[in-house]
Amino acid sequence: MKRSVLLVVLFSLCLHAFATETKLMVRAKAKDAKFVGSSIGGAHIIVRNSINGEILAEGVTSGSTGNTGLIMKTPIERHSQLTNDETAGFLAVLDIAEPTFVRIEVISPINKRNAQVHASTELWLIPGKDILGDGIVVEIPGFVIDILTPNTHQYIPLESIKSTGLDLKANMVMMCGCPIEKGGVWDSEAMEVKAIVKKDGQTFGEFPLDNPSRNLFATNLKIDGAGHYQILVYAYDPKTGNTGVDTINCVVTE
Fold first, then answer.
1. What is the pTM of this model?
2. Quick check: keyword Signal in the entry (predicted)?
């Protein structure tokens, strides 16, 4: 038994001795937008051995969202590089002794749970054969939507909104945090943004939201009675297929 344990230990030491440092750049890129970086909190990256699930590297992307002109306005040819040293990414440094099939898991954006997307891909890593430059780019579809007013579980006296209506405001950005506005690179006029409102579990109505200023979407809801209200705001871009949702509940009291 002792001899067997010794052989296992020696084998493990040999593998470690022959392990080669291998670098892998991983980036998360918002669909129809730029890279997920420090400005929105980054994307969480996990690199696993696909066979046994062992985590080989883990971290968060950091850096800038990248060059807007290059990413969004320049025709991209084969082998063109979209990134530079400032562009957001996570550099995984692994020690592997043999070709290893890995699974790259991306959770993005890490700090916005209501918009969080879990995406992944797999590939072979070869010892000493670095994958740098743009690296492995994982696409993250969607929008980040945050309802600003009314607040979650807010109690609102009916008398206070009977004549003026209830202001509904939401903030919306691309998954990288890039701005959305009328006539902008990410043009709100090409997107459908609506609120679906329920009162006491029953459909109350659907209401389009306007975009009065950068990232802000708003409308005014005519509330006719007390009750428990659920407000869901969704966005849809028919050209890209990007979608996003946020939901809050509030109470209108007599």
1. 0.90
2. yes
